[in-house]
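Methods — Computational structure assignment.
A single polypeptide chain was analysed. Its primary sequence is given first, followed by the predicted tertiary structure written as structure tokens.
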Amino acid sequence: MSFEIWAAILGLAVVVPAALLYNRLAYDRNQARQRYAEIDAHLKRRADLVPRLVEVAARHAAQEKAVLGGVTELHAAALAAANPEQRFAQERALGEGLKQLIVLQQAYPQLKADAGFRDLQSRLVEIEEQLQYARRSYNDAVTRYASRLESFPDVIVGTVLRFESMPAFEP
């Protein structure tokens, strides 16, 4: 056989497996991105509730300025986060702030009795449950993608084509 035929066979022997590896990495990356989009949707729904929760709580517990102001600041910081790592950190802090806001109802029976607050709290609990499921799904996808990026021969294709790891979203 001529040199050209051997070169073509060798080229195919390299290109086809590399293309298959690329497709697997791209698929896993896209799965993780899709799961992030699900988290993003739940976080936006939660973010929409925050100002209303603070408003209702402020009517009954105005003297709790530190908690109310803290939740408002955490909400703004979460919305302004520049990348997923920062956003996840801010969202965790906001979640803790929301827990403090919900605990206020123990000290303020009129807040606990407010139907609007109870409705918002119920919706928040529902969103948090959905967020937990989305977080687990996202973290599973990120772990699968990271494992590929660290496995041979995927690591070669991933490095050459600059596939980047994605952060986990720990509770």
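Note: Residues 3-160 form a domain with the de novo design (two linked rop proteins) fold (CATH 1.20.1440.20).
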